[in-house]
């Protein structure tokens, strides 16, 4: 599937890569992801897939073929060789990785991912058939995009996207897309979101156990039992602190097909309800606020006004986007979304 995305997005055409070479590259990348519960190749592909979905849903894409290639390659490689431990853990334990990438301050993991990604692409001849200037430009953009996936930079990424002066910049938009894709688990159906959330906690537990063995201060936000109230609270805080602000900003930006962003926001509402219910079975569920009320049914989507002047073309695009969303696992049952 990663190969198919690179082909259908025009990335292989831009890079002049034959399919066997593309398959070899993707296989090599997959082999370099470690067998950890969350930051594995499944997560990498999920982020790449969501990135591609957002690229496909642009009403008018601001990206050049080079930028599309950089964004998708960065998505595929953004957590390469992640060992299931945080940057702060590496710094606290003074690991070899922390020492090697000490110049990058707190973003030691992201610096490693970017370096390994570019080295792997070079070794797999990804840039062999483009001019030197394009190769340098795509490497530079990949590095910037991967470094921007550091969760500590969440405020800067969304503030830049919200700033009208910088939001039109393609690099700013690319950083926002990759960041949103990286934290997109709550935008999937509740069942899928829960699966990913449990994977996150299992990886957290591995770090907590190691911290205890090394007699280090335990990362408190990581400490919870599976299926517990504490786990539900952990995931709810993540949704409210990170997913909601970022995805709401995408939804109101008017850059994307409304069908996709509304489906993602609907799933976030359902995800919040799921974690609220898990925290307290008798809790009074509340619905988050969005721009207006919309019943999420097929007929409602069919009645949505077209994005462009050509109604027939817009209708065709909406039908195509529905197929993409269904294949991505975003589609859910009908639900009322009440918003201000």
From TrEMBL:
Keywords, ordered alphabetically: Hydrolase, Metal-binding
Which organism is this entry from?
Answer: Aphanomyces astaci
**What residues does Zn(2+) 2 bind to?**
79
**Catalytic residues (positions):** 39
Q: Which terms in the Gene Ontology molecular function aspect does this entry carry?
A: 3',5'-cyclic-nucleotide phosphodiesterase activity; metal ion binding
Which GO BP terms, alphabetically? signal transduction
Q: Does the keyword Metal-binding apply?
A: yes
Q: Does the keyword Hydrolase apply?
A: yes
Per UniProt, Zn(2+) 1 binds at 43, 78-79, 182
Recorded hits in InterPro entries, A to Z, give: HD/PDEase_dom, PDEase, PDEase_catalytic_dom, PDEase_catalytic_dom_sf
Top-level taxon of origin = Eukaryota
Q: Which residues form the PDEase domain?
A: 1-282
Which Pfam families would you find in this protein's record?
PDEase_I
Name listed for the protein in its UniProt record: PDEase domain-containing protein
